[in-house]
């Protein structure tokens, strides 16, 4: 027997204060993005299945249309946004800064509410991190836990990585890329002594020491590490973790990558990516997890 108030596992229900907080988060983010020259896009909830298979790590919810073509619920808004804008972008007829506020759907019944930001003309990751902090600060200023800079509230961490590093290490030292995806420490560290040292890097200082100690690294690896170090030096955030061997979960990421997380929940994630030959940068705000974090921070 299914009770009338039950909802499928993974679905979301917001009412009262939670629903209001969701709208406030979306309104604050929209205001910041409009101020930075972004325009809004809302992509179709359904797409042809062939356009949803590129996400690789997410199962799709599928059905068929009246012509028996396979249709899927949207499971990645970044791919959809680039795919739908690409023909117009080639004609330089559109703005190249976009954001969306809409859920994605993952098989069997999971929905994830997101605010996504895509920039197709400027890949300054430090700028995206600053915007992300602006959104977080705006939301915290509305809560009892009023500032991310308050040391007592420092439960929120920023993680920086560069997808090129595990890719280069996989090719150079013969490590299966899936070992980085699954964080198989034994497979990574047994391949080369350098991997054990690189695994211990956790901040800008330790990364710089590693690079100074190993001045004969392959040039492409050294360049990727230097990109990560320069980003770390440009971000004045106390709880910043450097993870050179972290491999981003979405396979379209191609370079520098960041995420804000707290209590094992990712609140914001983004970086450099390439889709359909289009280079871009962007980030996503995971609204559901941010709401829960704000409520816990307020002691509710």
Tell me about this structure:
Pfam families: tRNA-synt_His. One of its GO terms (molecular function) is glycosyltransferase activity. InterPro entries: aa-tRNA-synth_II/BPL/LPL (IPR045864), HisRS-like_core (IPR041715), HisRS/HisZ (IPR004516). By secondary structure, the chain is of the alpha+beta class. The protein has ten helices and eleven strands. The chain is 38% helix and 24% strand. The strands form two sheets. The chain has an eight-stranded mixed β-sheet. Helix 1 packs antiparallel against helix 3, helix 4 runs antiparallel to helix 9 and helix 8 packs antiparallel against helix 9. The two termini are 32 Å apart.
Question: Any descriptors?
Answer:
BirA Bifunctional Protein, domain 2, globular, alpha+beta, 11 strands
Structure summarized in a few sentences:
The protein is an alpha+beta fold.
Query: What percent strand?
Result: 15-25%
Query: How helix-rich are the residues, as a percent range?
Result: 25-40%
Which fold name fills CATH's third level, the topology of the domain at 1-150 and 277-300? BirA Bifunctional Protein, domain 2
Q: In sequence order, what are the helices and strands, one letter per element? A: HEEEEHEEHEHHHHHHEEEEH
- What is the rounded distance between the termini? 32 Å
Average of pLDDT: 89
Structural class: alpha+beta
pLDDT < 50 runs, ≥5 residues: 149-153
Number of helices: 10
Query: Count of DSSP E strands?
Result: 11
Could you say which overall geometry the principal axes of the C-alpha atoms support?
globular
CATH class assignment of the domain at 1-150 and 277-300: Alpha Beta
Indicate the radius of gyration in whole angstroms: 20 Å
Main sheet: strand order? 1-5-6-11-10-9-7-8
């Amino acid at each position: 027997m299914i009770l009338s108030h039950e909802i499928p596992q993974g679905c979301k229900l917001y009412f009262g204060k939670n629903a209001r907080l969701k709208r406030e988060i979306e309104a604050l983010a929209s205001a910041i993005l409009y101020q930075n020259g972004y325009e809004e896009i809302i992509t179709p909830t359904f797409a042809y299945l062939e356009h949803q298979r590129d996400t690789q790590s997410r199962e799709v919810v599928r059905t068929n249309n009246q012509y028996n073509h396979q249709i899927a619920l949207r499971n990645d808004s970044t791919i959809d946004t680039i795919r739908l804008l690409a023909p117009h972008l080639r004609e330089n007829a559109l703005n190249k800064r976009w954001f969306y506020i809409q859920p994605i759907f993952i098989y069997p019944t999971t929905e994830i509410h997101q605010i996504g930001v895509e920039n197709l003309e400027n890949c300054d990751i430090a700028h995206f991190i600053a915007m992300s902090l602006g959104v977080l600060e705006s939301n915290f200023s509305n809560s009892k836990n009023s500032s991310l800079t308050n040391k007592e509230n420092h439960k929120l961490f920023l993680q920086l990585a560069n997808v090129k590093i595990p890719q280069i290490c996989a090719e150079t030292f013969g490590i299966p890329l899936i070992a980085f995806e699954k964080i198989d420490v034994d497979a990574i560290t047994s391949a080369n002594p350098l991997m054990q040292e690189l695994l211990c890097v956790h901040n800008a200082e330790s990364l710089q020491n590693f690079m100074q100690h190993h001045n004969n690294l392959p040039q492409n690896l050294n360049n990727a590490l230097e990109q990560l170090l320069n980003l770390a030096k440009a971000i004045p955030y106390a709880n910043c973790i450097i993870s050179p061997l972290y491999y981003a979960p979405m396979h379209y990421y191609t370079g520098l990558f960041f995420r804000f997380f707290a209590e094992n929940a990712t609140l914001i994630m983004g970086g450099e990516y390439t889709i359909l030959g289009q280079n871009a940068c962007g980030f996503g705000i995971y609204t559901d997890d941010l709401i829960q974090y704000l409520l816990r921070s307020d002691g509710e």
